[in-house]
Design brief:
Shape: globular
Strand content: 5-15%
Number of domains: 2
CATH topology of the largest domain: Glutaredoxin
CATH architecture of the largest domain: 3-Layer(aba) Sandwich
CATH class of the largest domain: Alpha Beta
Structural class: alpha+beta
Order of helices and strands: HHHHEHHEEEHH
Strand order of the largest sheet: 2-1-3-4
Distance between the termini: 30 Å
Length: about 180
């Protein structure tokens, strides 16, 4: 019976994908918006879902995988709840983006090859340009731009997020505990 949650998760996953496909009338011409909606739902594009999408749209799997791998926006690996994108374009690089990146990676235990923390809370990525050269070095956390980054400022932002997450986890744990009345019933 230990495999039951996985069965429920897989069924739920494909149910959501079917809803997305139905919303787009299962049109192959809507492949990009379909993939965007799936990625919004799961924070990445699972391989088995891409295969399912190809079958559902009646297109070769190679076409779906080709689109998913062509656009940098799409991710084929799970990402953390909070995505940090560090710019390493020319302006940011010259203004010392690498020390900021190294500080983030050291604090979070990530690397070039392992971009996501084991707890799935953070993903640290580098990008060629964020288009915020006047704010160099710039980084984006969850679609919010932060400019003139230093290692210290970047780590302070991570600490803020960690504190918010701990607060949310604490509030959730308190809400799940039975009241004194309920536990004596």
């Amino acid at each position: 019976m230990a495999s039951m949650p996985m069965v429920v998760d897989r069924a739920e996953k494909f149910e959501k994908v079917c809803g997305i496909l139905d919303h787009h009338a299962r049109r192959a011409s809507s492949l990009i918006p379909i993939l965007q909606a799936i990625q919004h739902e799961y924070h990445y594009l699972p391989e088995e879902v891409l295969t399912f999408v190809a079958t559902s749209l009646g297109v070769p799997a190679a076409r779906v995988f080709g689109v998913a791998t062509f656009y940098a926006h799409f991710a084929l690996e799970p990402k953390g709840k909070h995505v940090i994108r560090m710019c390493d374009g020319t302006a940011c690089h010259v203004k010392q983006s690498i020390p900021v990146l190294n500080a983030l990676r050291q604090k979070l235990g990530t690397s070039e090859n392992c971009k996501t923390t084991p707890d799935m809370l953070f993903t640290v990525e580098t990008v060629a340009c964020l288009g915020a050269c006047g704010l160099a070095p710039a980084m984006v956390i969850d679609e919010q731009v932060h400019g003139q980054m230093t290692p210290e400022r970047a780590l302070a932002l991570v600490d803020e997020i960690k504190a918010q997450e701990a607060s949310l986890a604490g509030a959730s744990a308190v809400a799940e505990q039975p009241s004194a009345e309920e536990s004596h019933v």
